[in-house]
Amino acid sequence: MIDLRHEGATAVLTLMRRERGNALGLELVEALIGAVEACIADPAVHTLAITADGDDFCTGFDLGGFKLPDGAAELAALDGALLWRFVRIEHLLSLLWHAPLRTVAVAHGRAFGAGADLFAACDLRLAAPGTQWRFPGAAFGIVLGTRRLGEQVGTDRALAWVTTGALIPIDEALAQGLATGLVPDGGWRRQLAPLSVGRPAYAALRAAARSDRRNADLAALVRSAMQPGLARRIAAYRDALRRPPPASAGD
């Protein structure tokens, strides 16, 4: 599901679920967590770049095979399983946000939902022409990544994007600071300037620039996900995506 290779002191981590738009299923999330933790533990790695195979960077939370069960007990169990999946995604995002090395996201195609949060959690956020973002988690009551997004683009802008689920084109992403650079497909390596400080100094500078709110971020996610009916809210959101848009008055 992933490919991890080293190019000198840069580790390149590639999502390899192109048939699912690199959507974040449980196994992919666990593989990503393991890879990020391995890079953090390796003192020879000073930069971690996240790329993706296929047409899209990451289309978000994987809803493949998702369906509502009939029984109340089964529905409650599904709510719990979904909560656990979101907790693990939050852990992945937190690892990237606080990693003691330079992190780089290289997006193309769609970066939606948790995939957009994955992009926003990195230091350098590079994108190919035509990339699009969307942050729809609030549509099913999930608070995931909003504070971190606010630190990148400003609180007001982050709230507007999250609460409307707006489609964000590349020009807006660049103008608002969501994307930090525009790169042609495969050309991102040329935008990585060599670091002038060692990894310990970079880690110290990064920590000084960011307040540590890991516990608060996790608590906000859990409180939002524990509201009754998580599975039903996700099902309603999925069904709304499947419905065709209403016809205009002139049709």
TrEMBL record:
- What are its GO biological-process terms? fatty acid beta-oxidation
Q: Give GO MF terms, alphabetically.
A: lyase activity
Keyword hit for Heme: no
**Which species expresses this protein natively?**
Variovorax terrae
> What name appears for this protein in its UniProt entry?
Enoyl-CoA hydratase/isomerase family protein
* Family annotation (InterPro entries): ClpP/crotonase-like_dom_sf (IPR029045), Enoyl-CoA_hydra/iso (IPR001753)
Top-level taxonomy: Bacteria, Pseudomonadati, Pseudomonadota, Betaproteobacteria, Burkholderiales
Q: Which PANTHER family match?
A: (7AS)-7A-METHYL-1,5-DIOXO-2,3,5,6,7,7A-HEXAHYDRO-1H-INDENE-CARBOXYL-COA HYDROLASE, ENOYL-COA HYDRATASE-RELATED
Top-rank taxon of the source lineage equals Bacteria
